[in-house]
Write a structure and sequence with these properties.
The chain has 256 residues and is of the alpha+beta class. It has 7 helices and 10 strands. Strand 6 and strand 7 form a beta hairpin. Helix 1 packs across helix 2 and helix 5 packs across helix 6.
Length: 256
């Protein structure tokens, strides 16, 4: 979405929020899938404006994730942090709730005079045990010079730069390994065409260090594997039960 469309989008969403809140209290007013930063920011700002204009309302934002748990958690953190970053005067009237995972990722935004009733109607999110090799997160990764810090880096915080995706969720991946004693973390590295294992080793060095700095666990519970080439360089973060390591290594595609 181009920047020139932000103001019309912001105003139109504000109108939608206002009209819906007046005619059908508690109904979903905006429901979106995986959104770029610009789009999600504009929707959030429209919600805040509606709350400023009507002190009786509370905003309820429900995240319904999919199977990519690392990305779910990244979105959840962003949704919780955004009102504070923007310094909304109505931040205490915005409730972020997590619903159960489904096949398709969605974010639902509502305004209501009875947020407790709306929240009680949302089924609880229940975290499933890691009983099979599970793709936790994935994202672009390659050695480059960060345009802000001017330091060597391998992943981008592209979502913070008005991009359309988060960086791989290194922090929560490390935490999952640390708290799950029977799980091994696998970092699968794919390089761009004309790159190879040497480049993958450079990427692995940076990512493995970041993971180990994020949580404490035995180094023996973290592996890196070169997966070959792809159109775009990418890293996949997998959580693998120790009992299924052999099966995972013999045929990873089975578990996608």
């Amino acid at each position: 979405m181009k920047a020139k469309f932000l103001i019309p989008l912001f105003l139109s969403l504000s109108c939608v929020l206002s009209a819906t809140a007046q005619t059908e209290e508690g109904s979903p007013v905006v429901e979106i899938g995986l959104a770029c930063n610009e789009e999600l920011s504009a929707i959030y700002d429209g919600l805040a404006l509606q709350l400023v204009n009507d002190a009786s309302l509370t905003g309820v934002i429900t995240l319904i994730g999919d199977t990519l748990e690392g990305r779910n958690l990244s979105y959840l953190k962003w949704l919780n942090d955004y009102p504070r970053i923007r310094k909304y005067s109505v931040a205490d009237r915005i409730r972020v709730v997590r619903g159960p995972n489904q096949q398709n990722f969605r974010i639902r935004i509502q305004t209501t005079v009875d947020s407790e009733r709306i929240i009680r109607a949302i089924p609880d999110f229940l975290e499933k045990p890691i009983d099979r090799p599970t793709l936790f997160d994935r994202g672009w990764a390659d050695v480059h010079r960060d345009e802000y810090t001017r330091r060597t880096a391998v992943i981008n915080n592209s979502f913070l730069d008005l991009g359309c995706d988060f960086s791989p969720n290194i922090s929560d991946f490390a935490t999952k390994i640390a708290i799950s004693g029977d799980v091994v973390g696998y970092v699968l590295i794919y390089t761009a065409p004309k790159r190879g294992p040497e480049r993958a080793d450079q990427v692995a060095k940076h990512i493995l260090r970041s993971i180990r700095e994020s949580a404490k666990f035995s180094p023996s519970r973290l592996r890196s594997v070169y997966g070959g080439t792809r159109k775009e360089p990418e890293v996949e973060l997998w959580l693998v039960p120790k009992a299924l390591e052999k099966s995972f290594n013999n045929n990873r595609e089975t578990f996608r």
